Amino acid sequence: MDELVAQCVMFFLAGYDSTASNLSFVTYMLALHPYIQEKLHEEVIQTFKETNGKLTYEAIQSMKYLDNIISETLRLFPPTVRLERSAAANYKLGETGITIPEGMLVTIPIYAIHRNPEEFPEPEKFDPDRFTPEKRAERDPYAYFPFGVGPRSCVGIRFGLMGIKMCIAYVIANFKIKRCPETKVPLEFITFTGMLEPKEVKIALERRKDIPFMQQV
Fold first, then answer.
1. pLDDT attached to residue 153
2. Strand pairing partners for 195?
3. Exposure pattern of 28-65 as b/e (b: 16+ CB <10 Å)?
4. pLDDT for 58-102, tens place per residue?
5. How far apart are CA 212 and CA 47, in angstroms?
6. How do residues 136-178 score in pLDDT, each as one tens digit?
7. What is residue 194's DSSP assignment?
8. Which of 2, 24, 81, 109 is an S-S bond match for 201, by CB 3.0 to 4.6 Å?
9. Which pLDDT score is estimated for 41?
10. Peptide bond before 128: cis, by omega within 30 degrees of 0?
11. 8 is in an annotated binding site
12. Backbone angles phi, psi at 186, to 5 degrees
């Protein structure tokens, strides 16, 4: 019961900051890449047409390009720059002759792994097409893990991603996200206990003139 309560609290405490930061990063990257934004807008509007303006769970799951954009944003800006685990027992690393002793803290550098040029050519480039099914299948399964991996991965993955996708879909349907004179390039970061957050994100919103099949916000 204690673990269940702890996980529920984590949903609200950790989920709030990480979701807000991820939304900031996504909108920032869309502002810098208007052609990607317009391709996403086409997908969002087409989805709303098919669902008569209702943003259901199934509708969100059907937007593959939106998923690619968020995945690529999480590759460049993972919620945490590293994972740390304590070895539960002595562990020999294959034939390397190296043994990790029990109790040693092992750090996994997510930020660096996500920018490995062997897995992600031109790693600094924002390219949502890296996450098509074909491209995913070509990569090592452990080349990308913004929320961790295995039984101790983030328990709120689906909850967090669903919130981000809903927000972005509504914003893109109603507004164009644009750079403004105050938009900083490159982006400045704040790192707090391993969390990666933008120091300041300033962008402009322009209301779209034609917003079919949904209530304006």
1. 52
2. 80, 192
3. bbbbbbeebbeebbebbbebbeebeeebeeebbeebeb
4. 999 999 999 999 999 999 999 888 888 899 999 998 889 899 999
5. 11
6. 999 999 999 988 666 555 555 676 788 899 999 999 999 999 9
7. T
8. 24
9. 97
10. no
11. no
12. -75, 170
